[in-house]
Fold:
Amino acid sequence: KKNTPIILLHGWPSTVWEFNKSIPLLVEQGYTVVAPSLPGHGFTDPPTVTGVSPSVMACAYHKLMIKLGYKRFIVHGGDWGAIIGSLITYMYPESVIGLHNTMNYMNFGWRQILQTLVGAVFPSLVYTSEKEKRFMHPMFKFGERMYRSFAYFHIQSVLPDSYGYGMVDSPVGLIGWIGSRFVLWSADKYGPVPEMWREGVRNFGIDNICANLAIFWVQQNALSSMRIYYEFYWNDLELLRNFSIPDVPVAISNFPNEIIHLTKFTSWTTFNNIKQYNYHDHGGHFAHIDNTEAVVGDLTSFIQKIQ
Amino acid sequence: AVVSTQSTGDSDFDEMKDRLKKRIVVPNLVEPEKSPYGTPATYVNLVADHLTDSFDFNTVKDGLCQFKHFKTVIGDINLHFIHMVGSEEKKNTPIILLHGWPSTVWEFNKSIPLLVEQGYTVVAPSLPGHGFTDPPTVTGVSPSVMACAYHKLMLKLGYKRFIIHGGDFGAIIGCLLTYIYPESVIGLHNTMNPMRFGWRQMLQTLVGAVFPSLVYTTKQEEKSMHPLAKLSEKSYRGFAYVHIQSVLPDSYGYGMVDSPVGLIGWIGSTYPLVSSARDETKSAMENLQEGIKNFGLDNVCANLSIFWCMKSAQASMRIYYEFYWNDLELLSNFTIPDVPVAISNFPNEISHVTQFASKATYSNIKQFNYHDHGGHFSHVDNHDGVMGDLISFIQKIQ
Structure:
């Protein structure tokens, strides 16, 4: 399996703990695995300079793999890892054997718009899963849903530090925000609220929540972890709205409790060579935690497909 | 009920100092004072050190004890208020002073004595979750609900008709009170003019995009809407805090109640930010230093001490949620009919609306003054300006 080393990219507010079951599974099957910590998350200190955006991290991760002697590799990512992975593939297509994402990020190209309009009237024509449908439909609820869902993105792309001092100095400050993400992003957001919290804790696991929080607390980097939203918004937004990945094979894994749902039709705007597009019946934003077999299964079957 | 402010303040304040001495602040940037990410660690440490080394908490207690404090239950709210009875001749124009977020009645600690000296009767309530009114234990307490609560307060005190003065949410609540109970309001005086997006604002923005000097009276008015190309970035930056506080007010707030630096980092940063010119060519610390000069580090610490002792910082942000989901429609559409209105415009205020655009909200603008200094908290940094306007307005409409 020397020819297909894999780099696993986590996002916010995760750490390499996210892959603590997946890495053994892949190693067992003989794969070479590299899993970096995103600056400000886990064991990579935050940068002391400004400007370290996802595109800069894409170059850094590419350089890491070259340094380790891996000229061509598989990229796997979720959340910012998916975005950074897509940027690596866009900038260095010759280095990427295949790209596997668990989170499909929004684009507002003609495909998305067309599909949203048609889907507003004939949802069953365009949406494959119930969650895909509920993400964009009905239209009049979409505005409210977006207002609610992107509030955290908005503040973190403008004032990431201002709300964060309490997360480094106070454990409940850390739990109240960072801790809540693991739970909410692992549950059904369309159901009743109290059940949503209980379900999220059940799916992610209270010990996993505490493991991530322990790492953030000891490393004291919760505040600086949020800066990636700022750097992304003011540096990389244009790029991300406009690029598309030409020939490199891509696989997407869709989990019902993920925070963003795009159809395959819309995904063609970003990815021109979608080799695999799977749906799963359980799992959320952190599929490595709450549906490990499926995400690792998708990854290994994708690698076998494209070798 | 009559209350004393002497109670648990000292032990809470000492606890805050202890926590500050043990604080974890990680100033990892090479140039923290130039941080583009929001409150710089330099500022947090500056305020923290002032609180532990120099600030005298007795000034807060003494400052508040010069007033008479009361509490009364209205609906689900145990409302705290200051009530100073004035002279017989000014009996007919009692004044209610309404502060906003994240302020407290401390904002009026110089204004109330001045008004009392001149014989006015003054009532100054604490907004729920700010200062000495506990946050509501039920949801739904929006600005329009507070407008009714404040109206009820004045009636309870025997004031059937009164003058309203407010800034920030106080201005919004004051507008709503005047809209819902115009018969009760002798006059309305606002320091912050809420922006409306009706035809007046649109027309003026379009004309002003090409001929700014035709529509804008001050440099600040012009900069707030011109050039159009920069408007969307300015709005994106300016409304981020409104967005998050109208969706997840609690999620970011636990650290503000449990950690003094959490409190300083957000709540503490707002006072100097809205008291400065917020010059984009200057660094974060330069703007904050200007704000500190105008607002006063001791005033920052006084407000923070009150928020810390009352443990209400997190709950204070909920008014944005209740406002957005309950009152937005109303606030976008209402117009105050006949009641006389006065607006005071200060250069460092966060919102600048021309008199032309203000007619969308107020039908009877009797006074519209501009001042050459002062910001969002003019009671602190241009006290004579705002008090002069209020008193001259009252005399004008009597």
